[in-house]
Every structure is written in structure tokens, then in C-alpha cells.
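Data availability (excerpt). All sequences and predicted C-alpha cell strings are deposited with the supplementary files. A representative entry, Chaperone protein DnaJ, is shown inline so that the format can be inspected without opening the archive.
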Amino acid sequence: MRTPNPVARDYYGILGVSRDASDDDIKRAYRKLARQYHPDVNPDPEAQEKFKDINAAYEVLSDDRKRQIVDLGGDPLAPGGGGAGPGGPGGAGPFVGFQDIMDAFFGGAAGGSRGPRPRTRPGADAILRLELDLNETAFGVEAPITVDTAVLCTTCSGAGTAAGTHLATCEACGGRGEVQSVQRTFLGQVVSARPCTVCQGYGTTIPHPCPTCAGDGRVRTRRSLTVKIPAGVEDGMRIRLAQQGEVGPGGGTAGDLYVEIHERTHDVYSRKGDDLHCRVTVPMTAAALGTRLTIKTLDSEEVVDVKPGTQPGSTLRLRARGVPHLRGTGRGDLYVHLDVRTPTKLDADQERMLRDFAKTRGEEVAELTKQGGFFSRMRDAFNGHA
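C-alpha cell line:
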């Protein structure tokens, strides 16, 4: 007598049905619990885990082969299949053809999974691009988004069947989800299994599909959500919204939605990590004599001193005036790069004062004449001018 697996899950208890429950009883219990614990109806995290267990229990108990494993004390979803021992369901058993030999060597990869495919499967993840301004990525924002995804069909609650109807066992494969063929080769008889083309490997058909979802158990719709963007996110980062993606076929657990951040270019500031950079032009006289500048940061105004004698390319650093750190406290810095502007045109008085200033500093300033400088004289010599 086989000893029950001590870690096997009580799939009957999860659905709240007895061990001699019929297929219709199991299906009704699943639909009732699915409506109660589906993430679109009940966002509580515990309800989401409960919904996963409900899907797993229905997947097992709606499959005759897996249900037999449970009745023998095993767990078909446990690592190794939780089979009932050699020769039994899920056990090693004797080889009956080439397919079994390939399964033994390659773990069933040669011909895919044996038995019918479950109609209830997890949904796919979705991704959405969201453009934000620098102020929004720096300080965070609650941004409304619109996403087109597959959601649970409310008409059939994911079952895919019309009201009052049920799935039917596929007559072509007898509910196995696959058909076998025997070929004679030099190795002898080779038995191969292929997914049933009538039921697409599900083992069941839908004689009367749901008129809303056409048997898929889900419909596409546009939903409006609000995503909370934390302060300090950078361009290219993704925000994960759990189970806000595509609902799976048959009302399976929804995938995740990833919101990808794209930061718009700012008119004044450029960003490197959590630090900000900007360029400010100051007149030559202000750089020489010193001055004060009022810098408008992302969230305030700061007065900074430009020391006398500041050279072109100098940088002023304003601590903690950059972008807040995404993880932890504090902020980056703001770097102000100074461009010293030299006047391009001077009137006679301005030029005279600058030359007098240069003389007081002992600086020789060669005066440009109409004949020009050295290169002008060289050009005149080549052209034959005296």
C-alpha cells in the first residue's frame, strides 16, 4: 500500500469539494471561487495567492490522469510529478515505444508534455512607455496611464463556454490531448505522439463558445490606472505593477505591467545620475571684479558668489540641489559651469580705457593696423605689394 506524500497539497480542500465530486461539481466550485478571488475583483495580496491555488487545484482535478495521482497520495504539480510509483500514473513504467525512450533520455523535451494542455494559463507581461519632465522624475508624481490589455471575460468568468453549457471531451483523442501513430522502421515499431489537431491538445472542445470572448475566457479592453512614480527615477528605468498585465487564457493569473520611464530633455539642466549641470554666461568685467548670481534650481532660488578673477570654464557647486536619491536620503549636487563672455565690439572710449588698463598692468597689447598683422604682411609680399 502506497504511503501518502506528506507535502502533497489538498486540492479537494482548496476547492471545497469532496473526493467523489463530479466534474460539474468541481467546475462550479472553481467558477464560484474564481469570481471571489480574481485579482480584478479582489486586489488583496492574500486573495491573489488564493487565486493561484484555486487555478492549480482546478488544473489538477479537471484532468483525470492528474486527479488519479492525487487520489493515490501524490502531487502532480510537485517536482518530479509526485507519481504513484513505477508502473502507475506519473511513474517510470515500462517503455512502450520510441517516444518513451526519448522522454527518458531528454525529460520529455523531444515530444513536448504528455497529456492534455490546461486551458487556464498565466497571462503575458505588458510594457508601457511613459514620458515625464525632469521635475516629475526628480520629485516623483502620480501619473495616470491608459493601457490596452486582455481582462477576464465577465460573461463566462473565464470558462469560455456559453451560459448553461460545458466543455466536451474531444472525440478524436478521447480527452488525452494527443494522438499516437505507429510506424515500422528498421528499429522496429516506433510509437510517436502528436498534439490532437481537433482540440489543439486541450483534450476538450467548446461546442458552444461564449458569445463575448469566443471561448478565450478573456476580452481586450482599455483600462485607466494611476502609477506612483518614486522620486529620483532615471531615464530607462521600469516600474513593475504586479498582475496588471494580460489576463491569461481561460481566466489565468494576469501577468505584470512594466512602465518604462522616458525623461524629456530640459531647457536648462542636463542630468548625470543624481547630479544636475547647467551653463551660465557672465560678462568679462563681472568675472574680473566678482559678482552675485541668482540661480533658479528645480525647487528654489539660490544666490551664489562669483569670486573676483574667475576664469573661463570655472564651475560652482551647489550641494544637495540636484535630484533626490532614489534609494536612501539626500540629493545630488548642482554644478554651474561659467562661460566668461568677451565683448566683440568696442567703441573708441571703451577701447581706450581697456588699453589704459592694460598699460597699468604692464601688458603689451599690439595694435592692429589697417595693413593687418604678420600674416597680412606675408600675403601682401606674395601679391607684390611693398
